[in-house]
Amino acid sequence: MARAQQAKPIVAVLSPLSAQAAAANIGALREGLRDLGFDEGRDFTLALRFLDGNFALAPVMAAEVVALKADIIVAGSTIPVVETHNATRTIPIVMAGLGGDPVELGLAQSIARPGGNVTGLLSNALTVSGNFGMVGKQLALLAEMSPGLGRIGAMFNPDDAQDKPQLEVFPESAGNLHLDYRVYEVREAGDIDAAFARLVPDKVQAIFIPGSPTFNNYRKRIAEKIAQAGLPTMGTIREQAVDGCLMTYGASIMGNYRRTATYVADILKGMKPADLPIEQPTKFELVINLKTAKSLGLTVPATLLARADEAIE
Description:
By secondary structure, the chain is α/β, with parallel strands linked by helices. It has 2 domains: 2-123 and 253-275, 3-Layer(aba) Sandwich (Rossmann fold), CATH 3.40.50.2300; 134-250 and 285-312, Rossmann fold, CATH 3.40.50. It is 40% helix and 18% strand.
């Protein structure tokens, strides 16, 4: 009876996306916890907060989840993680996908032994230099799909800490493939139309769009603009390919949220985040939308199709 009267642990989630865009990720977290024997309502209470792409709200909402006296905070993407860490050094924070080096950001002492109140998952594998080697791989795949590719356009939000490491290595990655490039800044929904309007005058032949919160949040709108532009597009998360992007290559966000459940479960059992190693993704998905390829008049190379984890028809 005494146990029944005790308040259930509160697991707060601070997502950078809208409730609609984040629904699948939250579902993966719930399912992961359920598979581990933790049922919402019986074993814990879930408190959800959504930035809807407005990173200026991150400090306010981070303070809000701390004020809830949450037992664990799950934070998605770099800015929510950093702001939540600024708001508390005692409540365990589980990263559902950090787009940077947690040691350089002051979130952990090391990957193997974080030492503080932050642990969880990275959204990309870090190279020795601390930058992402993923961008070069993504551009190489796009070039393989688009013979004769000479100029590529890339969209980034310079205010989104998730985009910053990719933006830093993009020029070198494009140069290694002998690609000319144009970078378009997208901070909010209104910038999307302006960026796409410049593609034709700039004679861009293909597009690179990251799967960071800014672009994930406006995924449907971007998919419509991609269809109108009629250009091959490389994304970084599977959901972009589902919406009509030609191809994507990167770690699974839903997979990260499902894996995050393991961290939450361990902490609920009494383990400390300081002792739980931070994980880098080891599996990356190559997804090709064959319907989009056909509409663009592209023939998917057999070698590329054989390497694809999923072909959407």
